């Protein structure tokens, strides 16, 4: 499991897991429950590059949003994975 501390959103953390470049689990901690569940469910089973492309740059407040933070979490994950290789 991966953990990402969000910034500028009501959700404070995203816990997720990626297998074979596919998002297999995703849970937002705090934030708007309905929206967070919706984002997570729609993203499950999707290729992380697709998620990044679709969700990056969506704004709610403070220049970001929960979907944008998920994209940032996945970008951070990819960078860390590349550094391990």
Helical residue percent band: 40-55%
The count of helical stretches stands at: 3
Separation of the first and last Cα atoms: 19 Å
- Output the strand order for the largest sheet: 1-2-3
**Helix-strand makeup class:** alpha+beta
| Spans of at least 5 consecutive residues with low confidence | none
Order of helices and strands: EEEHHH
Radius of gyration, in angstroms, nearest whole number:
12 Å
| Total DSSP E strands | 3
Mean pLDDT: 96
What percent of residues are in strands? 25-35%
Q: Major sheet: size, sense and barrel closure?
A: 3 strands, antiparallel
Please state the overall shape, judged from the principal axes of the Cα atoms: globular
């Amino acid at each position: 499991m991966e953990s990402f501390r969000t910034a500028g959103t009501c959700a404070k953390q995203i816990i997720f897991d990626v297998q074979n470049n596919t998002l297999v689990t995703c849970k937002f901690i705090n934030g708007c429950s309905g929206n967070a569940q919706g984002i997570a469910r729609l993203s499950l089973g999707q290729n992380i590059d697709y998620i990044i492309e679709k969700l990056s740059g969506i704004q709610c407040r403070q220049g970001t949003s929960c979907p944008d933070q998920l994209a940032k979490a996945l970008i951070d994950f990819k960078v860390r994975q590349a550094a391990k290789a």
